[in-house]
Amino acid sequence: MYALLKKLLFTLDAERAHHLTTTLLRMSRKFGVLRLLKPLIVGEVFNETTTVNGLKFSNKLGLAAGFDKNAEYLHEMDILGFGSVEIGTVTPVGQEGNPKPRLFRLPEDTALINRMGFNNQGVDAAAYLIEAFRRTKPRSKLIIGGNIGKNKVTPNEQAHEDYRICFEKLYGWVDYFVVNVSSPNTPNLRELQDKDALREIFRTLRNVEGELIKRYEVTRPLFVKISPDNSFEQIDDILSLVEEYNLAGIVATNTTISRSDLSTSADVVTSIGAGGLSGKPVQSRSDEVVAYIRSKNSDISIIGVGGIQTGADAVQKINAGADLVQVYSCFIYEGPKMISRITRRLAGG
Questions:
Q1: Can you state the angle between helices 283-296 and 311-320, rounded to 10 degrees?
Q2: How far, CA to CA in Å, does 160 sit from each of 95, 185, 242?
Q3: Is the pTM of this model over 0.90?
Q4: Are 291 and 28 contacting, i.e. CB atoms less than 8 angstroms apart?
Q5: Are 136 and 179 in contact (CB under 8 A)?
Q6: How many whole angstroms separate alpha carbon 194 and alpha carbon 178?
Q7: pLDDT score of 3
Q8: What is the pLDDT of residue 349?
Q9: What was the pLDDT predicted at 155?
């Protein structure tokens, strides 16, 4: 079924196709069709409860940040069978992001290039929708992560305040947090991966965390999402801060600015321009970073993301050292059936 839909979707601009797909998912869910069609469009989801940082994931497969920026499709992803959804990246104030077009397919490489620029409706809108989901689906086992960032107009010197605002406003509703300092699509954002800048963000969040724990009577695991373009020396600096501030772990990795070893013609890639590359070309480096982090620290949790297209890819990332995995580009190229295929392999089937 998805193969036919994909032919239509791939004739459209990538961002327009994304909106059409999510609209179809939402409408089918509202009319009660999505749950009925699940055996056909997804197949059997193989759940195997995995506990990470005290959170019980029904399976190890999550939807990476970027697909559901505003927490609009939690009901749909819950029905489809994801073990977790990472919403965002959200910022304190809603923003339009970068000019369109800003999302591009590279079918020859099973990849995407995006320069979305943290387009989202703001943290208040996301908090409202997550709270509504919690209220209407109190028995749902879906784990929700909150991927937080800074507004484009916020100077890096004040970025820690943007992360604080998002942290405080989402604390009562998400299950875990991810500090996103690694997107290549917000000017100078990656500079926040520098040790001093990152320390200020973690210090700020830890300073307000005590009151939030008292208020909500729960502790939320805190992760940082890093770039695949970091050197091992830079990763060592980040790891030292993860240990200093007792973070739960690392999400490895974000998109890359590299364009090496692509099958897509250089002229096409050049015409697309700037943006983060995701999908199959990122797999090798992502696995390498996951393995490096695990070799340096056996205790922290790692969420592995980047280049997963098959169940074997997911198992490979787990074997490299990841505790959980996430997909994005795979969902675009393979459709909902991949949920069944990947969870089967992750469950040992």
A1: 30
A2: 18, 18, 16
A3: yes
A4: no
A5: no
A6: 17
A7: 86
A8: 73
A9: 97
Please give the class, per CATH, of domain 45-346: alpha beta
8-state DSSP, 297? -
Q: How many other CB atoms are found less than 10 A from the CB of residue 79?
A: 21
Residue with tokens 């490299």: 320
List Cα–Cα distances, 257 to 189, 194, 250, 265, in angstroms: 13, 18, 20, 16
Mark whether 183 is an active-site residue: yes
Between CA 212 and CA 38 the distance in angstroms is 38
Q: Write down the domain spans for the chain.
A: 45-346
Residue owning tokens 């028995």? 139
pLDDT < 50 positions in the chain: none
| Candidate list 183, 286, 301, 340, residue with the active-site label | 183
Q: What are the φ/ψ torsions at residue 137 (nearest 5 degrees)?
A: -130, 60
Nearest to 274 by CA among 186, 147, 189: 186
Q: At what angle do helices 14-30 and 2-9 cross, to 10 degrees?
A: 140
- Closest alpha carbon to 64 in 335, 326, 282, 254: 326
